[in-house]
Amino acid sequence: MAQLFRQMTVCGVGLIGGSLASIARHAGLVGKVVGLGRSQANLDVAVERGMIDAATRDPVEAARGADLIVLAVPILTMRATLEKMIEHTAPDAVVTDVGSVKGYVVRELEPLITGKRSLVAAHPVAGKETTGAAAADPALFRDRRVIITPSAKSTPAAIDKIEQLWDETGACVEMMDAATHDEILARSSHLPQIVSSVLAAVLAGEKVGDKLAAEYGAGGLRDTTRLAASSWEVWRDIFVTNREAIASALKLYGGTFAEFERLVAAGDMAGVEKIFNRGRAMREAIR
């Protein structure tokens, strides 16, 4: 594929940002990749592993000459990060992000997009509980969804370039409005994180007699609590910026959980079976 951007600056060279940078660099989609970060040690890993060509902790230096800015920092820091950079980017620069909340991101970033610059908000629905450049994986996005949420500051040319960038990762790209995205992800991504974290919290230190209950868990407990190892910094911002949609998702979950609890207490195994089988059918339908 032909080069899409002259210089890609990735703000936050972690799991998502590092994986995208590595793919773009090695596929020749960008002429140069600059990594911006807080930790020099993490940036050094990114350079050593060939994810980026240059590293800096200075936002102005990172922005100079960039015609693509990828915001892979926590959602609540995106605006402040871009404010320091935007006027130093190329006049035709495209700004994109990888956050899992889109309405807040669009509202915060659109006022900063000046002149011929464009904003194309995006969310790769992929990830792991691990973080940092060392966790980056060039196969991370393969056969995963990437949702682009165009807005008033998205030009057709910029949307096309971002779509091509994500196509090269092997992802399945689709378009969606930001509000719909946030409602869906509250149920399909944010709620599973909460359930995993709360279950792990419930079992932390929980004893039956002198036995720690969690020590007797096998693969099921490990699988169900895997997400509990995720970064609080990332999830704090999601809970803050998608609070209303998450509250709705929790009500949905709470209603069914309360019904399940009632049926078990009543010994109504026919009712329990219906919910159990509904859940099993949903799980079997996931690829």
Descriptive account of the structure:
This protein is of the alpha/beta class. It has two domains: 5-176, NAD(P)-binding Rossmann-like Domain (Rossmann fold, 3-Layer(aba) Sandwich), CATH 3.40.50.720; 180-285, 6-phosphogluconate dehydrogenase C-terminal like domain (6-phosphogluconate dehydrogenase C-terminal fold, Orthogonal Bundle), CATH 1.10.3660.10. 47% of the residues lie in helices and 16% in strands. An eight-stranded mixed β-sheet has the order 3-2-1-4-5-6-7-8, sandwiched between helices. The longest helix has 26 residues, at 178-203. The radius of gyration is 21 Å and the shape is elongated. The relative contact order is 0.11.
State the domain count.
2
Task: Write down the CATH topology of the largest domain.
Answer: Rossmann fold
Approximately what portion of the residues adopt beta-strand conformation? 15-25%
In N-to-C order, the SSE pattern is EHEHEHEHEHEEHEHEEHHHH
- What structural category characterises the helix and strand content? alpha/beta
* Total beta strands: 10
Count of helices?
A: 11
